[in-house]
């Protein structure tokens, strides 16, 4: 089987970097509080801060690039295909005949960047298939196309 054809928006890397930075922000705030209060000897906060900074830089700068290289998606007349992950990669194929709902989600950072996530809910124990970080226009077209294909399909979505 060939890999799915399309990548997320080029702004996906920025989205993932911003989300990673927002995850690290409380960690740095907590470390600042520890330094101000002076709970640990002088060298411990410095060593912890250095380690945290290395991990944060990798998470913020490297992981989004890596994820962008891996993430793919495609829609055919018969199925929705996705490939996701960065450490553990997952391929999902959702037959159109199993599609129950198609939703669009936009968080605050997504809206700021003009992005959306399309969620295809199927009759599967593995859960919904998500196509992440699409430009809003692409997401709208994808939802319309999936709705059209699913409506023309005679499957029972169970």
Automatic annotation (TrEMBL):
Q: Which keywords annotate this record? A: Membrane, Transmembrane, Transmembrane helix
Q: InterPro entries from the xrefs?
A: YdbS-like_PH (IPR005182)
Which Pfam families does the entry mention?
bPH_2
Which residues span the membrane? 14-40, 46-66
What residues does the YdbS-like PH domain cover? 68-143
Provide the protein name: YdbS-like PH domain-containing protein
